[in-house]
From TrEMBL:
Its EC number is 3.2.1.39. InterPro entries: GH, Glyco_hydro_17, Glyco_hydro_17_plant, X8. Keywords: Cell membrane, Disulfide bond, Glycoprotein, Glycosidase, GPI-anchor, Hydrolase, Lipoprotein, Membrane, Plant defense, Signal. This is glucan endo-1,3-beta-D-glucosidase.
Amino acid sequence: MKLKTWLASVLLLTIAVLTNTLGAFVGVNIGTDVSDLPSASNIVGILQANQITHARLYDANAHLLQALSNTSIEVIVGVTNEEVLRIGESPSAAAAWINKNVVAYVPSTNITGIAVGSEVLSTIPNVAPVLVPAMNSLHKALVAANLNFRVKVSTPQSMDIIPKPFPPSTATFNSSWNSTIYQLLQFLKNTNSSYMLNAYPYYGYTKGDGIFPIEYALFRPLPSVKQIVDPNTLFHYNSMFDAMVDATYYSIEALNFNNIPIVVTETGWPSFGGANEPDATEENAELYINNMIQRVMNDSGPPSQPNIAINTYIYELFNEDKRNGPVSEKSWGIFYTNGSTVYPLNFGASDLITGNSSGVFCVAKDGADTDKLQSGLSWACGQGGANCAAIQPGQPCYVPNNVKSHASYAYNDYYQRKHSSGGTCDFDGTATITTKDPSSSSCIFAGSSNSSTGGLSLPPMALGPSGPFGASMNLQVSSLKYLISAIGVFLVLAVL
């Protein structure tokens, strides 16, 4: 019996160590209120080109879910606010939603989470009574499909439901929501799910009437006379981001719950604003995002929970110019739709992406219409300004002599030259972005690391941990977690 107990202890310790060494990640939200939204395959190409391993969708966009298949990118799909009421009132509607938007895509699309609504308690409070019932119904549908261990259900909430977030140690949820939040936390605890938090230091600072210095919002060091300290715990807070996460942990604790991890489903900083939005600048956005990435990737939690990493999703991939509201509301993107970055994204001194497309190529799609390819080829080599000398007879890229191969070369040459000034990889739907270098030993495409005339060869940014086998390693690690958990439960039961 002592041996069995010892084996069980060793197994549980091994599980804990493996789980905790997987590392924190930074993912990205994909909003689609964009006038010139790229195709789903091009959006996924941008994610892959920049090693973004986690993405959140605001709905269950069929085109994106299909394009994300076989990529290993971990995906959170969204139940829209408009769908919450119907699902909350009808278990059959929940089952139909799961079958249509999850079962139909798993496992080729690596769906690992469902976000039920967005900030429901603070934006559509009349739907609050059915929020947790909707989550329960979705979870039961996942159980019926045997996906409840793979796909977790939660709901993103804003900081607005915590009226006084500072000092963090005294923070509590708005008492008018206590019943609903208690049910929510009980659900998360029962299903081993995370609390989803939308945390925006930009709003915390701009609405704070100068209470906190801007350095505190931007993760910048504070002089000793400006240190932010919780008077009750004497914890020092180096960023408003950490304080917001900790305020949420303390609010959860105030309702007698613990061991519910927090994932930040949205955070960011606008790069442009109106005349009355002086803090929405490209410089501040660059500082915030880069400092936030560095903060999250150090794998530590806030002062009260130092061992729980703060996995985080950037808001957002593109500027959503079709959104209503102030100018800043349209300016949260970190990429332009052509794949270049709005500002440099920095992962340390050696990891810098500047918007050059190193490692990203624009090629003709398989199965594209030949006439359209010919038109695109002619345009790229003519008005587009691509250098097409290499695909002329007798030149290195003439063979294979077919329109698809020649179009790929011309499309890519145009894209490498023009994408930083707005050029796109579309060509009437016949082109797509890829991270696979189309070069051969005799024909070198612009942008290739083998090209002396191509773009700068800079390391891609890594929004998340990447193993030696690239992005596919993340799926292996994710699957390993589930396998470890299943083996752990089985063996612990066996030895008890």
